[in-house]
Design brief:
The chain is mainly α. The chain is built from six helices and two strands. The chain has one domain. Strand 1 and strand 2 form a beta hairpin. The protein is globular, with a radius of gyration of 16 Å. The relative contact order is 0.13.
Length: 154
């Protein structure tokens, strides 16, 4: 049977992955695209990595805008390497941002960095909220308080 730490990571991975997959769908489907299921494990990986560093005191003691910047960089790196493997190496064509400005090999566009930066406080909060609901960890602050800190650079 899975130990508690692995089970905890799997639950966080799945929930964060589903949220990421849903955001992809909300973004792509109205434009005639689709949300590919590979976005679930990619999003889960982003959630685990951002959430994992948020468990390190040196990281969570940073201001939320700083945490958001680091989280955004993590997401862009994961998306770039995932895209490189899926779209360039395996030629699956899951996404292609080559028509967007500031793209890197068509796998990421730095324009999306702004989007991820704005979403990152919510991602950090959600990972902590999952830990609070399931394991009574990281409880005590709400989504509005984290965005207040984010907006006022606290």
């Amino acid at each position: 049977m899975l130990n508690n730490k692995v089970l905890k990571l799997l639950i966080i991975w799945f929930i964060m992955g589903m949220v990421y997959f849903t955001i992809e769908g909300i973004w792509r489907i109205p434009k005639g695209g689709e949300a590919n299921i590979v976005m679930l494990p990619i999003g889960g990986m982003c959630g685990i990595l951002v959430g994992g560093i948020n468990q390190i005191p040196k990281f969570y003691n940073l201001k939320i805008w700083q945490q958001s910047l680091i989280g955004t960089i993590i997401v862009l790196i994961v998306e770039y390497f995932s895209g490189y493997i899926l779209n360039i190496v395996f030629e699956l064509g899951v996404w292609d941002y080559s028509n967007l400005p500031f793209n890197l090999d068509g796998q990421i566009s730095l324009l999306f960095a702004v989007f991820w930066y704005i979403l990152m406080p919510a991602a950090i909060w959600l990972e902590d909220y999952i830990r609070c609901v399931f394991w009574k960890e990281n409880c005590g602050y709400g989504i509005f308080s984290i965005y207040k800190e984010f907006l006022f650079f606290r």
